[in-house]
Every structure is written in C-alpha cells, then in structure tokens.
Design brief:
This protein is an all-alpha fold. It has one domain (about 5-75). It has helices at about 5-20, 30, 50-75.
Length: about 90
Amino acid sequence: MRWTSIIAIFALFWVLSAFLVMPFGIRTHDELGLEKIPGQVHSAPANLSPRLIMRRATVLAVVSFGLYYANYVNHWITIQDLDISHLIGLY
C-alpha cells in the first residue's frame, strides 16, 4: 500500500472516529446547573473540549486503522468472505 493511500485512509478513519466520540461527555447548561445566555438553544454544550475530542478520535483512529492495516497485510477477511450472494439465492 502506498503512503498516500495510508494517509488518506487514516484521515477517513479519523473523521469517522471524531464523529463517533464527539457526543461522549458533553453536558448542557441545564445538566451542569449553569445559567444560559439569552437566546441560547437548550441543547448547546456547556463543556465542549475540542482537544479531548481530538485525542479520543486519534486513539480510536489509530486502533481502527491498525486493525484495518493488519487485515490488509494478513488477509484475515477478504472480499470473498463478504460475498453473500449464495445466501440470498443469487449465483
């Protein structure tokens, strides 16, 4: 696998991981007992921490990409393993 492909695939894993970890630990002003700014939406986060989200996303992306790359090298699961046409009657 070329290094440009590795970077592109890792970036995809990182973005997916960021969206997966983003909602964990986020609390609203009501949940934390803080006063809201007039006009503020009720669901706005009070404790958003982008650095923490980036760290969590990076850890999850490294682990996920590591498993993906190990599968790519060792061929644990191949495209033939994912062929389900025989299960639904297509030959």
